[in-house]
Amino acid sequence: MQIAVIAAFVASVASVVDAWGSLGHSVTGTIAQKYLNSNAVNMVANLVESKYAGSLAGDTANWADTNGRTLIKESAEWHYVDMMAAVPKSCGYVQSDCVGRTCIIAAITDQTKILLDAKCAKSTATTQAVQFLAHFLGDITQPLHNCNRDRGGNDAKLTYNGQQSNFHKIHDTNIPVSFATENGLSGTDAAGLAKLVDSKYASKMSTYTSATFIDLQSVDSANNLLGAIAMASDANALDCNKNAFWGLYDQNPNQDFSGAYYDATKDFLIEQIAKGGYRSAAWMNAIANACAGTTPEPSPSKTTVTSAKTATTTVKPITTTSSTKTKTTTSSTKAAAKCAHSECVAGAKLASTCSACAGLVSKQDSYCTATSWDDICVDLAVQVCGIQC
Protein backbone atom coordinates (compact mmCIF):
# COMPACT_ATOMS: atom_id res chain seq x y z
CA MET A 1 0.00 0.00 0.00
CA GLN A 2 1.34 3.43 -0.92
CA ILE A 3 1.92 6.00 1.84
CA ALA A 4 -0.81 8.26 0.46
CA VAL A 5 -3.31 5.45 0.57
CA ILE A 6 -2.32 4.64 4.15
CA ALA A 7 -2.84 8.26 5.12
CA ALA A 8 -6.28 8.23 3.54
CA PHE A 9 -7.10 5.02 5.33
CA VAL A 10 -6.07 6.47 8.69
CA ALA A 11 -8.08 9.64 8.19
CA SER A 12 -11.18 7.73 7.19
CA VAL A 13 -11.19 5.06 9.90
CA ALA A 14 -10.05 7.07 12.90
CA SER A 15 -13.62 7.88 13.83
CA VAL A 16 -15.20 4.51 13.07
CA VAL A 17 -12.82 1.79 14.28
CA ASP A 18 -13.79 0.72 17.79
CA ALA A 19 -12.82 -2.93 18.19
CA TRP A 20 -15.15 -5.05 20.29
CA GLY A 21 -17.27 -2.01 21.12
CA SER A 22 -17.53 -0.98 24.76
CA LEU A 23 -19.08 -4.31 25.80
CA GLY A 24 -16.33 -6.47 24.33
CA HIS A 25 -13.51 -4.40 25.80
CA SER A 26 -15.15 -4.36 29.21
CA VAL A 27 -15.39 -8.16 29.01
CA THR A 28 -11.69 -8.59 28.13
CA GLY A 29 -10.75 -6.21 30.95
CA THR A 30 -12.95 -8.00 33.47
CA ILE A 31 -11.50 -11.40 32.54
CA ALA A 32 -7.97 -9.97 32.66
CA GLN A 33 -8.45 -8.50 36.12
CA LYS A 34 -9.55 -11.90 37.44
CA TYR A 35 -6.30 -13.56 36.36
CA LEU A 36 -3.77 -10.92 37.39
CA ASN A 37 -1.08 -12.15 39.76
CA SER A 38 -0.21 -10.19 42.91
CA ASN A 39 2.50 -8.15 41.18
CA ALA A 40 0.12 -7.15 38.40
CA VAL A 41 -2.73 -6.38 40.79
CA ASN A 42 -0.42 -3.93 42.56
CA MET A 43 0.87 -2.47 39.30
CA VAL A 44 -2.62 -1.91 37.93
CA ALA A 45 -3.90 -0.47 41.20
CA ASN A 46 -0.97 1.95 41.28
CA LEU A 47 -1.03 3.05 37.64
CA VAL A 48 -4.63 2.96 36.41
CA GLU A 49 -6.49 6.23 36.84
CA SER A 50 -8.47 6.48 40.08
CA LYS A 51 -11.76 6.91 38.23
CA TYR A 52 -11.32 3.30 37.05
CA ALA A 53 -10.91 2.09 40.64
CA GLY A 54 -7.43 0.68 40.05
CA SER A 55 -8.79 -2.19 37.96
CA LEU A 56 -8.81 -3.39 34.36
CA ALA A 57 -12.52 -4.22 34.69
CA GLY A 58 -15.29 -1.76 33.92
CA ASP A 59 -14.40 0.95 31.40
CA THR A 60 -10.61 0.89 31.73
CA ALA A 61 -10.08 -1.01 28.48
CA ASN A 62 -12.26 1.53 26.65
CA TRP A 63 -10.02 4.46 27.65
CA ALA A 64 -7.96 4.27 24.45
CA ASP A 65 -11.13 4.93 22.44
CA THR A 66 -12.87 7.39 24.72
CA ASN A 67 -9.86 9.48 25.82
CA GLY A 68 -6.62 8.18 24.37
CA ARG A 69 -7.23 9.40 20.84
CA THR A 70 -7.99 12.90 22.05
CA LEU A 71 -4.89 13.08 24.24
CA ILE A 72 -2.56 11.46 21.70
CA LYS A 73 -3.96 12.03 18.21
CA GLU A 74 -1.49 9.73 16.47
CA SER A 75 -2.79 6.83 18.56
CA ALA A 76 -5.72 6.52 16.13
CA GLU A 77 -3.29 4.57 13.94
CA TRP A 78 -2.29 2.21 16.74
CA HIS A 79 -5.50 0.14 16.79
CA TYR A 80 -4.90 -2.05 13.72
CA VAL A 81 -2.36 -3.51 11.33
CA ASP A 82 -2.95 -3.51 7.58
CA MET A 83 -1.99 -7.06 6.66
CA MET A 84 -1.82 -6.91 2.88
CA ALA A 85 -2.43 -10.58 2.07
CA ALA A 86 -5.53 -11.15 -0.04
CA VAL A 87 -8.03 -12.55 2.45
CA PRO A 88 -9.67 -15.02 2.36
CA LYS A 89 -7.27 -16.57 -0.17
CA SER A 90 -4.10 -15.83 1.73
CA CYS A 91 -3.14 -14.55 5.15
CA GLY A 92 0.06 -13.68 6.97
CA TYR A 93 2.21 -10.85 8.25
CA VAL A 94 5.27 -9.24 6.67
CA GLN A 95 7.17 -6.30 8.12
CA SER A 96 5.97 -3.92 5.40
CA ASP A 97 2.45 -4.35 6.82
CA CYS A 98 3.49 -2.10 9.72
CA VAL A 99 4.76 1.28 8.54
CA GLY A 100 7.03 3.00 11.05
CA ARG A 101 5.68 2.73 14.60
CA THR A 102 2.05 3.23 13.62
CA CYS A 103 0.43 -0.22 13.73
CA ILE A 104 -0.96 -2.15 16.70
CA ILE A 105 2.04 -4.50 16.78
CA ALA A 106 4.43 -1.56 17.18
CA ALA A 107 2.05 0.10 19.66
CA ILE A 108 2.01 -2.95 21.94
CA THR A 109 5.80 -3.16 21.67
CA ASP A 110 6.30 0.53 22.46
CA GLN A 111 3.82 0.76 25.34
CA THR A 112 5.37 -2.35 26.88
CA LYS A 113 8.82 -0.76 26.59
CA ILE A 114 7.59 2.38 28.38
CA LEU A 115 6.57 0.28 31.38
CA LEU A 116 9.68 -1.89 31.44
CA ASP A 117 12.07 1.04 31.06
CA ALA A 118 10.33 2.87 33.92
CA LYS A 119 10.20 -0.29 36.03
CA CYS A 120 6.48 0.43 36.29
CA ALA A 121 7.01 3.59 38.35
CA LYS A 122 3.97 5.84 38.33
CA SER A 123 3.89 8.64 35.76
CA THR A 124 1.54 9.98 33.12
CA ALA A 125 3.33 7.87 30.50
CA THR A 126 3.11 4.61 32.45
CA THR A 127 -0.56 5.19 33.34
CA GLN A 128 -1.33 5.74 29.68
CA ALA A 129 0.77 2.72 28.72
CA VAL A 130 -1.21 0.35 30.98
CA GLN A 131 -4.51 1.75 29.75
CA PHE A 132 -3.44 1.57 26.09
CA LEU A 133 -2.31 -2.03 26.54
CA ALA A 134 -5.60 -2.95 28.22
CA HIS A 135 -7.26 -1.88 24.99
CA PHE A 136 -4.76 -2.99 22.35
CA LEU A 137 -4.41 -6.51 23.75
CA GLY A 138 -8.13 -6.81 23.08
CA ASP A 139 -8.04 -5.06 19.70
CA ILE A 140 -5.37 -7.36 18.34
CA THR A 141 -7.60 -10.42 18.79
CA GLN A 142 -10.32 -8.93 16.55
CA PRO A 143 -9.68 -10.47 13.10
CA LEU A 144 -10.81 -7.40 11.17
CA HIS A 145 -8.18 -5.28 12.91
CA ASN A 146 -5.58 -7.48 11.26
CA CYS A 147 -6.46 -7.24 7.58
CA ASN A 148 -6.66 -4.48 5.00
CA ARG A 149 -9.61 -5.66 2.93
CA ASP A 150 -12.35 -3.01 2.64
CA ARG A 151 -10.64 -0.96 5.38
CA GLY A 152 -10.96 -3.80 7.85
CA GLY A 153 -14.54 -4.41 6.71
CA ASN A 154 -15.73 -0.83 7.24
CA ASP A 155 -16.51 -0.44 3.53
CA ALA A 156 -18.32 -3.78 3.28
CA LYS A 157 -21.92 -2.66 3.73
CA LEU A 158 -24.50 -5.21 4.86
CA THR A 159 -27.71 -5.83 6.78
CA TYR A 160 -27.84 -7.04 10.39
CA ASN A 161 -31.20 -7.69 12.02
CA GLY A 162 -32.88 -5.61 9.33
CA GLN A 163 -30.62 -2.60 9.90
CA GLN A 164 -27.86 -1.25 7.66
CA SER A 165 -24.38 -1.80 9.07
CA ASN A 166 -20.93 -2.87 7.91
CA PHE A 167 -18.79 -5.97 8.27
CA HIS A 168 -16.44 -4.41 10.80
CA LYS A 169 -19.13 -3.05 13.08
CA ILE A 170 -21.13 -6.25 13.42
CA HIS A 171 -18.06 -8.02 14.81
CA ASP A 172 -17.19 -5.15 17.12
CA THR A 173 -20.63 -4.68 18.54
CA ASN A 174 -23.65 -6.49 17.09
CA ILE A 175 -22.52 -10.10 17.41
CA PRO A 176 -21.21 -9.79 21.00
CA VAL A 177 -24.44 -8.03 22.02
CA SER A 178 -26.54 -10.68 20.26
CA PHE A 179 -24.56 -13.40 22.02
CA ALA A 180 -25.19 -11.77 25.39
CA THR A 181 -28.92 -11.47 24.64
CA GLU A 182 -29.11 -15.07 23.41
CA ASN A 183 -27.73 -16.17 26.78
CA GLY A 184 -30.20 -14.17 28.83
CA LEU A 185 -27.94 -11.17 29.48
CA SER A 186 -28.39 -7.53 28.64
CA GLY A 187 -26.22 -5.99 25.96
CA THR A 188 -24.42 -3.95 28.62
CA ASP A 189 -23.78 -6.68 31.21
CA ALA A 190 -20.01 -6.97 30.85
CA ALA A 191 -19.60 -8.75 34.18
CA GLY A 192 -22.21 -11.35 33.30
CA LEU A 193 -20.82 -11.92 29.82
CA ALA A 194 -17.25 -12.14 31.17
CA LYS A 195 -18.36 -14.86 33.60
CA LEU A 196 -20.03 -16.78 30.78
CA VAL A 197 -17.07 -16.45 28.40
CA ASP A 198 -14.62 -17.44 31.12
CA SER A 199 -16.66 -20.55 31.95
CA LYS A 200 -16.52 -21.61 28.29
CA TYR A 201 -12.82 -21.05 27.60
CA ALA A 202 -10.83 -21.06 30.85
CA SER A 203 -9.71 -24.64 30.19
CA LYS A 204 -7.81 -23.41 27.12
CA MET A 205 -6.11 -20.48 28.85
CA SER A 206 -2.67 -22.09 28.86
CA THR A 207 -2.84 -22.57 25.08
CA TYR A 208 -3.94 -19.00 24.46
CA THR A 209 -1.14 -17.67 26.65
CA SER A 210 1.73 -19.92 25.59
CA ALA A 211 5.23 -18.48 25.17
CA THR A 212 4.44 -17.94 21.49
CA PHE A 213 2.06 -15.14 22.46
CA ILE A 214 3.47 -13.92 25.78
CA ASP A 215 7.03 -12.94 24.97
CA LEU A 216 8.34 -9.56 26.12
CA GLN A 217 11.87 -10.15 24.87
CA SER A 218 12.10 -11.52 21.33
CA VAL A 219 11.85 -8.96 18.54
CA ASP A 220 12.08 -9.01 14.76
CA SER A 221 14.49 -6.86 12.76
CA ALA A 222 11.99 -3.97 12.86
CA ASN A 223 12.16 -4.14 16.67
CA ASN A 224 8.60 -5.39 17.09
CA LEU A 225 7.81 -8.03 19.68
CA LEU A 226 7.21 -11.51 18.26
CA GLY A 227 4.48 -12.10 20.82
CA ALA A 228 2.47 -9.21 19.36
CA ILE A 229 3.11 -10.47 15.83
CA ALA A 230 1.90 -13.93 16.85
CA MET A 231 -1.31 -12.50 18.34
CA ALA A 232 -2.02 -10.50 15.20
CA SER A 233 -1.29 -13.50 12.97
CA ASP A 234 -3.52 -15.73 15.10
CA ALA A 235 -6.48 -13.39 14.55
CA ASN A 236 -5.61 -12.80 10.91
CA ALA A 237 -5.76 -16.56 10.26
CA LEU A 238 -9.50 -16.40 10.94
CA ASP A 239 -9.84 -13.96 8.04
CA CYS A 240 -8.87 -16.91 5.84
CA ASN A 241 -11.10 -19.48 7.56
CA LYS A 242 -13.51 -20.68 4.90
CA ASN A 243 -16.12 -21.42 7.58
CA ALA A 244 -16.26 -17.91 9.04
CA PHE A 245 -15.65 -14.22 8.42
CA TRP A 246 -14.70 -13.34 4.83
CA GLY A 247 -15.20 -16.88 3.58
CA LEU A 248 -18.87 -16.75 4.55
CA TYR A 249 -19.25 -13.09 3.60
CA ASP A 250 -18.22 -13.83 0.02
CA GLN A 251 -20.72 -16.66 -0.24
CA ASN A 252 -23.65 -14.29 0.27
CA PRO A 253 -22.95 -10.61 0.99
CA ASN A 254 -26.66 -9.81 0.61
CA GLN A 255 -27.88 -11.98 3.49
CA ASP A 256 -29.07 -10.66 6.83
CA PHE A 257 -25.98 -11.39 8.90
CA SER A 258 -27.96 -11.84 12.12
CA GLY A 259 -29.14 -15.24 10.87
CA ALA A 260 -27.00 -18.07 9.51
CA TYR A 261 -23.83 -15.98 9.56
CA TYR A 262 -24.25 -15.16 13.24
CA ASP A 263 -24.82 -18.82 14.09
CA ALA A 264 -21.70 -19.90 12.18
CA THR A 265 -19.39 -17.17 13.46
CA LYS A 266 -20.42 -16.32 17.02
CA ASP A 267 -18.28 -18.97 18.72
CA PHE A 268 -15.18 -17.98 16.73
CA LEU A 269 -15.68 -14.37 17.74
CA ILE A 270 -16.46 -14.99 21.41
CA GLU A 271 -13.38 -17.19 21.65
CA GLN A 272 -11.33 -14.25 20.37
CA ILE A 273 -12.74 -12.08 23.16
CA ALA A 274 -11.68 -14.77 25.63
CA LYS A 275 -8.18 -14.80 24.16
CA GLY A 276 -8.03 -11.03 24.59
CA GLY A 277 -8.88 -11.32 28.27
CA TYR A 278 -6.45 -14.12 29.06
CA ARG A 279 -3.61 -12.63 27.03
CA SER A 280 -4.14 -9.21 28.64
CA ALA A 281 -3.74 -10.80 32.06
CA ALA A 282 -0.68 -12.83 31.07
CA TRP A 283 0.97 -9.83 29.39
CA MET A 284 0.36 -7.60 32.41
CA ASN A 285 1.64 -10.35 34.71
CA ALA A 286 4.86 -10.62 32.69
CA ILE A 287 5.41 -6.86 32.77
CA ALA A 288 4.70 -6.62 36.49
CA ASN A 289 6.96 -9.57 37.27
CA ALA A 290 9.78 -7.98 35.28
CA CYS A 291 9.34 -4.66 37.08
CA ALA A 292 9.32 -6.44 40.44
CA GLY A 293 12.43 -8.40 39.52
CA THR A 294 10.60 -11.72 39.80
CA THR A 295 11.28 -12.83 36.24
CA PRO A 296 13.50 -10.25 34.54
CA GLU A 297 12.51 -9.37 31.00
CA PRO A 298 14.84 -7.03 29.08
CA SER A 299 13.15 -4.15 27.32
CA PRO A 300 12.79 -4.74 23.56
CA SER A 301 15.72 -3.04 21.88
CA LYS A 302 17.27 -2.80 18.44
CA THR A 303 20.52 -3.94 20.03
CA THR A 304 19.00 -7.34 20.84
CA VAL A 305 20.82 -9.02 17.95
CA THR A 306 20.03 -12.57 19.03
CA SER A 307 16.33 -11.79 19.33
CA ALA A 308 16.28 -10.15 15.92
CA LYS A 309 17.85 -13.24 14.34
CA THR A 310 15.36 -15.45 16.13
CA ALA A 311 12.56 -13.23 14.93
CA THR A 312 13.51 -13.71 11.29
CA THR A 313 13.33 -17.46 11.74
CA THR A 314 10.11 -17.32 13.72
CA VAL A 315 8.18 -14.91 11.53
CA LYS A 316 8.69 -16.77 8.27
CA PRO A 317 6.35 -19.70 9.06
CA ILE A 318 3.61 -17.23 10.04
CA THR A 319 3.90 -15.30 6.79
CA THR A 320 2.09 -16.94 3.91
CA THR A 321 2.00 -16.07 0.22
CA SER A 322 0.38 -17.83 -2.68
CA SER A 323 3.61 -19.60 -3.60
CA THR A 324 4.66 -20.62 -0.10
CA LYS A 325 1.16 -21.78 0.72
CA THR A 326 1.11 -24.13 -2.23
CA LYS A 327 4.47 -25.56 -1.28
CA THR A 328 3.72 -25.87 2.44
CA THR A 329 0.25 -27.32 1.90
CA THR A 330 1.60 -29.94 -0.48
CA SER A 331 4.24 -30.96 2.04
CA SER A 332 1.68 -31.07 4.82
CA THR A 333 -0.68 -33.19 2.76
CA LYS A 334 2.02 -35.78 2.13
CA ALA A 335 2.93 -35.85 5.81
CA ALA A 336 -0.70 -36.09 6.86
CA ALA A 337 -1.03 -39.40 5.03
CA LYS A 338 0.82 -40.95 7.98
CA CYS A 339 -1.66 -39.48 10.44
CA ALA A 340 -5.12 -40.66 11.46
CA HIS A 341 -6.55 -37.50 9.89
CA SER A 342 -5.38 -34.19 8.44
CA GLU A 343 -4.00 -31.48 10.71
CA CYS A 344 -6.83 -29.32 9.32
CA VAL A 345 -9.54 -31.56 10.79
CA ALA A 346 -10.57 -31.67 14.45
CA GLY A 347 -10.77 -35.20 15.80
CA ALA A 348 -8.75 -37.83 17.63
CA LYS A 349 -5.32 -36.96 18.96
CA LEU A 350 -2.45 -37.11 16.48
CA ALA A 351 0.88 -38.62 17.38
CA SER A 352 3.61 -36.00 17.44
CA THR A 353 5.63 -38.25 15.15
CA CYS A 354 2.95 -38.65 12.48
CA SER A 355 4.04 -35.48 10.66
CA ALA A 356 6.41 -32.57 11.00
CA CYS A 357 3.43 -30.26 11.50
CA ALA A 358 1.97 -32.39 14.31
CA GLY A 359 5.35 -32.27 16.01
CA LEU A 360 5.44 -28.48 15.84
CA VAL A 361 1.90 -28.19 17.21
CA SER A 362 2.72 -30.62 20.02
CA LYS A 363 5.53 -28.33 21.16
CA GLN A 364 3.01 -25.49 21.50
CA ASP A 365 0.17 -27.52 23.04
CA SER A 366 0.72 -31.13 24.12
CA TYR A 367 -3.05 -31.53 24.58
CA CYS A 368 -3.29 -31.95 20.79
CA THR A 369 -1.14 -35.08 20.74
CA ALA A 370 -2.00 -36.43 24.18
CA THR A 371 -5.79 -36.00 24.38
CA SER A 372 -7.61 -34.57 21.36
CA TRP A 373 -6.85 -32.65 18.18
CA ASP A 374 -9.52 -29.99 18.65
CA ASP A 375 -10.25 -26.72 16.83
CA ILE A 376 -7.49 -24.94 18.73
CA CYS A 377 -5.01 -27.51 17.46
CA VAL A 378 -6.22 -26.84 13.91
CA ASP A 379 -5.67 -23.11 14.47
CA LEU A 380 -2.18 -23.81 15.81
CA ALA A 381 -1.40 -25.90 12.73
CA VAL A 382 -2.28 -22.91 10.53
CA GLN A 383 -0.09 -20.63 12.63
CA VAL A 384 3.04 -22.68 13.20
CA CYS A 385 3.06 -24.85 10.06
CA GLY A 386 1.99 -22.20 7.54
CA ILE A 387 -0.73 -24.40 6.07
CA GLN A 388 -4.11 -23.19 4.84
CA CYS A 389 -7.13 -25.09 6.17
UniProtKB/TrEMBL annotation:
GO BP terms: DNA catabolic process
Pfam families (UniProt xref): S1-P1_nuclease
UniProt cross-references to InterPro entries, sorted A to Z: PLipase_C/P1_nuclease_dom_sf, S1/P1nuclease
Signal is among the record's keywords: yes
Signal peptide: 1-19
MF-aspect GO terms: endonuclease activity; hydrolase activity, acting on ester bonds; metal ion binding; nucleic acid binding
Database matches in CDD domains: S1-P1_nuclease
Keywords from the UniProt entry: Disulfide bond, Endonuclease, Glycoprotein, Hydrolase, Metal-binding, Nuclease, Signal
Family statement drawn from the similarity comment of this UniProt entry: Belongs to the nuclease type I family.
Protein name: Uncharacterized protein
